[in-house]
TrEMBL record:
Domain of life where this protein originates: Bacteria
Residue intervals of the FAD dependent oxidoreductase domain: 6-321
Keyword S-adenosyl-L-methionine (UniProt): no
Annotated SUPFAM superfamilies: FAD/NAD(P)-binding domain
Species name: Leucobacter manosquensis
InterPro entries membership: FAD-dep_OxRdtase, FAD/NAD-bd_sf
Pfam families in UniProt: DAO
Protein name: FAD-binding oxidoreductase
């Protein structure tokens, strides 16, 4: 196993998972981020762990593995909570196999109007993305990882020709045998400093948070009108499409509309209040597929994937092994940048 230092750029859920899995294997690893853990795209994630039915694509297989790795991490990492509540779904977008078993009202008793036909996915779950990120990083530190927050990386360093062998932090340079770029939408600009192209798109979405009495929503609820889940403290998350909103007034209106829909959909929700409505920029490669692995530039490893929450667990494990052994993991073989 390599004992040379590894630098991971990006303290979102993906970078945190890779850092944890490296540190757990005994690697000398440093995690660097311009902000705090989970303060970028991770903060705006719904946190749904699952696989769409009928998704037989390679990425779908990877998402299925993601669930099993989250089960493992929940056992390994102190304080990491994954809630296997299941998901109740209906409508054209989320389910084509809904049944009329009458169980929707049992699984979500606070629905004001339970659907006649629905599908329950017992294997789906959710987690709080920021808390999970923080727990992974704490566990990584317990295993010897170093962290540098509030420290933006200005460029990747190539002191030996085309090989990336460090990062520049303003006037400071950190050396590394491998630099992992897991910086979400910032990954393109970082890779460009090493002459490497990483075509990406930034897909915006709005996350509305409501304050409500705990227990109104038991699991994940998703249909053609809305998606919702409730955290243990009562906070309700409702992700919505971005429709060119361009001001705080626009976002507050979206939040108020979401609140009205929530109150209409759930009994006992009249006291719900809008806590926030924010735009999140979801990072994904231009072709929509994960991009994970060593690039054609020696020393540069890239990890960009959507949906990051579901995939972070399996990618973290596989990427750590690839970095330390230089052997390709089968589940990541088709996601190379070339």
């Amino acid at each position: 196993m390599s004992t040379h230092p590894v630098i991971v750029i990006g303290a979102g859920i993906m970078g945190a998972s890779i850092t944890y899995h490296l540190a757990a294997r005994g690697a000398d690893v440093t995690l660097v981020d311009a902000g705090l853990p989970g303060s970028g795209a991770t903060r705006h994630s719904f946190g749904w762990i699952g696989r769409m039915p009928g998704d037989f694509s390679p990425a779908g297989d990877l998402r299925a593995l993601g669930r099993h790795h989250w089960e493992r991490l929940a056992r390994e990492v102190p304080g990491l909570e994954v809630h296997w509540s299941g998901a109740l779904v209906w409508g054209e977008h989320f389910s084509s196999v809904g049944t009329g078993d009458g169980q929707a009202a049992v699984r979500e008793p606070n629905l004001t109007s339970a659907p006649a036909r629905s599908e329950f996915r017992p294997d789906d779950g959710w987690l709080n993305p920021v808390r999970a990120t923080e727990k992974l990083i704490s566990a990584a530190q317990e295993n010897g990882a170093s962290v540098r927050f509030g420290t933006p990386v200005t460029r990747l360093v190539s002191s030996r020709g085309d090989t990336v062998d460090g990062v520049e932090l303003g006037s400071e340079t950190l050396d590394a045998s491998t630099v992992v770029v897991a910086a979400g939408i910032g990954s393109t600009a970082l890779c460009a400093t090493a002459g490497r192209s990483l075509p990406m798109i930034s897909s915006p979405a709005i996350m509305v948070r409501l304050g409500a009495s705990p227990g109104l929503v038991r699991g994940i609820v998703a249909n053609d009108m809305f998606e919702a889940r409730q955290d243990v403290d009562g906070t309700v998350l409702i992700p919505l499409d971005y429709n060119t909103e361009s001001s705080m007034e626009d976002l507050m209106q979206v939040g108020m509309d979401a609140r009205r829909l929530f109150v209409k959909s759930f009994k006992g929700a009249q006291e719900a209040a809008v806590l926030s409505a924010e735009i999140g920029w979801r990072p994904m490669a231009a072709d929509g597929e994960p991009k994970v692995g060593y690039s054609e530039t020696p020393g540069l490893y890239i990890a960009v994937a959507h949906p990051g929450i579901t995939l972070a667990s399996v990618i973290g494990d596989a990427a750590a092994e690839e970095i330390l052994t230089q052997a390709t993991r089968d589940e990541l073989a088709i996601y190379r940048l070339n």
